Structure formats: C-alpha cells, structure tokens
Amino acid sequence: MKLSTTSISTLLNENKIYRNLFWVLFSLALIFLFFDTADNGHDFVVMYRAASSYLHHEPIYSIERDGGMVFKYPPWWIFCFIPYALFPLSVAKALWAATNVGSLVSIFFSLMRLGFSFFSVSVSVMAFWGIWAVHFIDGQVEVLVLALVLFLLEKLNNNKLPKYAAGIVYLMSIKGPSILGAFGVFTKKNILKVGSIFFIVISTVTLIASLTTTHGMNIMSDWKDAASSGSQALEPGKAVLGRDNQGIPAMVHRVNGSFSAHALPELGVNGIVFVLGAVVALYLFSGLSLIPRTFFWLAAGVVLHPLAWFHLFVWCLPLTVYVVDRAGKREVNEIWFWFPLLLGAVTARTLGSFGQSLEFYSFKSLVVCTGLVWFSIKSSALTQSNPRHI
Description:
Elements: H1 5-13, H2 16-39, H3 42-55, H4 63-66, H5 82-85, H6 89-113, H7 118-127, H8 129-138, H9 142-158, H10 162-172, H11 191-211, H12 219-227, H13 248-259, H14 266-285, H15 290-303, H16 317-328, H17 339-344, H18 348-360, H19 363-385
Helix pairs in contact: 2-6, 2-8, 6-9, 7-16, 9-10, 10-11, 13-14, 14-15, 15-16, 15-19
C-alpha cells in the first residue's frame, strides 16, 4: 500500500520513536544554538552596550560612538536589556543565549497548546534550522519576542482582555514598521482600548527614559536619527540591493536597480509597498478568526518590512505551522507540506548560484505571500462554515 504524505504525517504524529528522535535532535540543536550566541551574539552586543550606557548615564543613541551598530530600538525597549547589563559581557551573552533557548522551547509548547499537532510544529521547527542558526549567531531578539507574543495570544484567546492585545502591540513595536505584525489582535470593539493602553504605556516609559538619560526630551529625535542611520555603514548596497534582505521592498529596489538606469527613492518605495501591502492584507485577513489572523499579520509584517533580514523570518514560524497543520488535516493539497522547506531551507548556501537567483527575487517573501493569499481565502471559508476552526 502506497502511503501519502498526509498518512505519513498522521503516523509520525503519534509515533513514539519519531517523538523521541525529535527531542534528542532538538536538544542537541539547542546546545549548539546556545553556543552560537554565547560565542558570537554581535547584535546582542549593541543592546548590551546601550543598556550599559544607560546605567553609566551616557547616551543610549550615539552614532558618533557606535557608527552603524548604534542602538536602533525604540526608547521604551531599553529597560528590557538593563538586567543583562548588570553582568560582564561574557556572562550577559550566556544569559541572553539561555533566554533565547528557553524562548524557543516556549514557542514549541505554545503552538501545541494553541491546538497544532506535534508533527506540524516539529517539522516546521526543524525546517527552520538555517533561520535559527542565523538568529542565534547574531544574538537577535525575534525568538524572545515571538515567545512572548504566543504566550499573550494564549491569554487573549481565552480571555479577550485588551491588555493582552496591547502587550502584543508593544512587543511588535520593537523594529518600527514591524508593528504591522500586531494588527491581527485588533478588532472594531477593542481598537480604541488597545490603542489607548499601548500609547499610555509607551508614553510613560519613554518619559521615564527621557528623564533618566542624557537625551532628555530629545530622546525621540535621537532615536529617529539612530534608526535611520546605519545603511551607509554596511557593505555598499547591502541594505537595499543585498540578497540578505528578503523583503518585498528590497526586491523592488533590486529589480529596479537591475532594469532601470534611475534608482527609485528608497523611502518612497518602502512606504508605497508597505501601505499597499497592508491594504491588501486588511482585505484578505478580515474574515479570519483570532489565531490565524494573528499568525498571518505576523508574517505580513515580515515580508513588508524594509529590512527583512533572514532572522526576521522567525516570525513566519506560526504561519508555517498553520500551513503544515492544514495539510495534515487534508484541508489543502499535500504539496503544502513543502512550505517549511521552501521557506527555511532554500538559500544560496543550499542551492548555490540558483539559490542566489531566487534570493535576488526575495524568494522567502514570495513563498510567504503565496501562503498568505491562498490560506487566507481557504481559511475564511472554513471559519465561516465552522466558527471554532483554528
């Protein structure tokens, strides 16, 4: 008897040997990822230096001091990194590595508690190995943010209190335009309450930061200058034309730069793509229930971000799990089982020059967009026929 991919997924989901093998491999992977951050973690050093500067009453935003590696996160995030700055850098890196490892484990179990199968979560996590490696080597923050978003989403799914939704908006504000990824928690009933809570919190925390740093009331303008800097300090063309940036705005710039003698203004193109993409997403995702709507907006926020580096695609994991879960339940064609590999494993490192060509056209974002369009239409129909549908 010929087994289909769906049948295999059903068998593996309850298979003890598969589960035990996964946990062995996952545990080994976590050890490697821990040391990736502890031994490298270059981006974490930026966060650590900013928090240390705060503790020493020095500017947290200083382009003159830090150049392209200046702290670029909003001022209401500086206090999240201060606990790590209380320790020597080597110890802080180890603590940050442990935080990220714990966050990745938390992500796994949160997705299962939200109703997704062991098979769909484990396969997606394994397929994302390359993305995890980039994230942990850089010492980035997306894994921690996603763990906290999923924790609050569990709370929000059980109790529609606006404070949980506002918490998700706060978390997704860390990378500026990434706040688009939080749009899934908004409804007509809660938008004013959630928006008000978010505004009050960030205003209060920013005021505290302005009163306790050398920036004073200029802290917002200093953040703006720092956030818009750095592109010049990178390799030429890396921020806009480099393949490491897998967002849709970057792809538009690369294509335009290849086929037009006149480069389009970066800010203008980013804004147009961002707004048009958000409008399309609003239309497509409006009929979805809370969980898929949140997952889809998280992914949309990634592909529309002006600086969608590989590690930002961590936030596409929930969408990937959703896709595999739907395929496992025979709601869509089995071809969607390839979605995690297409998103996580197709790179220049795995496919050489062909992979480079795919990355030129932001292949990761194109895969995500295909999934978003197809599954938003499919899931809207399922939600209307079954309101309890995930």
